[in-house]
Amino acid sequence: MTPTRFDDPSRGAAQQPNRARIKQQAHYRKLTRWTLQGWLTMFYLAAGYAKLTEPTELLGLLLTWPDAVDPLFVRALGGLELLMALGLVLALAPRVPARAILNRVLAFSFLESLAFFLFHAVERDFGHMLVNAVLVALSVIVFRTQERAS
Predict the structure, then answer these.
(1) How far apart are CA 1 and CA 57, in angstroms?
(2) Among candidates 85, 2, 98, which has minimal Cα distance to 49?
């Protein structure tokens, strides 16, 4: 029988994995996921609120794309973003089918951010491209870490 890296007696006791360290690492992963979920929640809460309450002219100056679409679409997207923020918060609550809610919210977040990333790439609006690239990355990271945690 070939010894595994855990059976190697030449390794010090501090290097051997133990339950406390594994539990601590799982705790850190959970805190990281919750922090990233919180950032996504704050972003979608602010973005949705702005799209629902700000005049279309101001949104056109800030975002460049609302002038090209129907104002009703901008308001509907704002409502969806507020629902996404609510879904991200509900996924942290106990006794809620968190995985189902979170997967749907993260899928929509990924698709929306990717679509806007591509739109801003065509328009060569690098600042907004960066924001959407970060949102895509956060959505993927939260999805991957919650899949591993479950």
Answers:
(1) 73
(2) 85
Token pair 């507020």 in the structure block, residue:
82
The amino acid at residue 145 is: T
Whether the model pTM is above 0.90 = no
Q: What is the DSSP letter of 17?
A: -
Angle at Cα 44 formed by Cα 41 and Cα 49, nearest 5°? 125
Compute the distance between CA of residue 111 and CA of residue 119 in angstroms, rounded to an integer.
12
Question: What one-character DSSP code corresponds to residue 54?
Answer: S
Q: What is the mean pLDDT of each run of 10 residues along the chain (150 residues)?
A: 54 65 84 89 93 87 81 92 89 71 85 89 87 91 73
| Range 45-83 burial, b when 16+ CB lie within 10 A, else e | bebbebbeebeeeebbeebebbeeeeeeebbebbeebbe
Q: What amino acid occupies position 79?
A: G
CA torsion 114→120→121→126, rounded to 10°?
Answer: -110
User: What is the Cα–Cα distance from 25 to 31, expressed in whole angstroms?
Assistant: 10
